[in-house]
Design brief:
Blueprint: E1 3-9, H1 14-23, E2 27-32, H2 36-43, E3 47-52, H3 54-58, H4 63-69
Parallel strand pairs: 1-2, 1-3
């Protein structure tokens, strides 16, 4: 079964995204950004959706996104 991981950076529509993915017949899990690397290793997803809100982009420090994506960009998984 194909698996998809949704990494939540504080988006208001993360649950809606997950529902639409599940309605299309794909198994998915939502995980907070700080636990993404562990969950990624656990379920070995075929693709990853990064779901963020305006604060995760406008923060300026980049700490939230860098910490959550660490290691994910080195994989052969679609982001």
């Amino acid at each position: 079964m194909d698996r998809l991981l949704i990494v939540d950076f504080g988006s208001q529509v993360t649950q809606l995204i997950a529902r639409r993915v599940r309605e299309s017949g794909v198994y998915c899990e939502i995980v907070p950004f700080h636990a993404a690397q562990e969950k990624f290793a656990e379920i070995d997803p075929r693709a990853v959706i990064l779901s963020g809100g305006p604060n995760s982009v406008a923060d300026g420090s980049g700490r939230r996104s860098a910490r959550g994506r660490r290691g994910l960009h080195r994989t052969a998984v679609a982001l």
